[in-house]
Amino acid sequence: MRCVVVVGAQWGDEGKGKIVDVLAEQATIVARYQGGANAGHTVRVGEGADEEEHILHLIPSGILNPETRCLLGNGVVVDPWVLAREMDALRARGIDLDGRLGLSRRAHLVLPYHRLLDAAQEDSRGSKKIGTTGRGIGPAYRDKISRAGLRVGDLRNVDRTREIVAAAAVRANVTLAGLGDERRVDADEVMSELETVRPAMVELLTDAGDEIRGGLASGGRVLL
After folding, report:
1. Catalytic residue chosen out of the listed positions 13, 50, 98, 159
2. What residue ranges define each of the domains in the chain, with the CATH number in brackets?
3. Catalytic, out of 41, 54, 108, 114
4. String of b and e for 132-164 (b: at least 16 CB within 10 Å)?
């Protein structure tokens, strides 16, 4: 095993998380390359009374292997509050994360206005709803594709973060008004919420591509 890629068939509930957990025993790096917190990977560890269930939405299930370095790549849209809660939950169960989790500086963030837009757009569809999870994944990817989103690396510069959030709030409020939704985005509130998770996200920053290339060059085993 040098580099193995796990690809789902787009049906959902395919058991990708369980497969990754098994293959991670052979991997030095496990990297997630796409998706967001709409995923839900359930992994059970141990047997009988000692069995523990872990439900992961963002962090690769390879994190349960103590020898594995886990990465969230630039194709992932990261809800920083979900990620922070997952980290807290894992630590509460004795999982050591120090030096074992990295977050691509190029990954885009899912912010409160993405979730608001997701819900408002779904409501506007009436009987033709598409069944979105409402977690803001689609709107976050739309910002990524249009090069208007906030990347994790931007969090190092508060002024740049504020500039991007302010512009996004204006666009979001125009969209909400067009949908007939009375809710509005307050950029200052978003900045205040971001400050609660910003230090933890900045601490995880890495160049995921460089790590993967370096891992392969040094003879490591990578699972994507």
Report:
1. 13
2. 2-107+203-223 (3.40.440.10), 108-201 (1.10.300.10)
3. 41
4. bebbbbbbbbebbeeeebbbbbbbeeeeebbeb
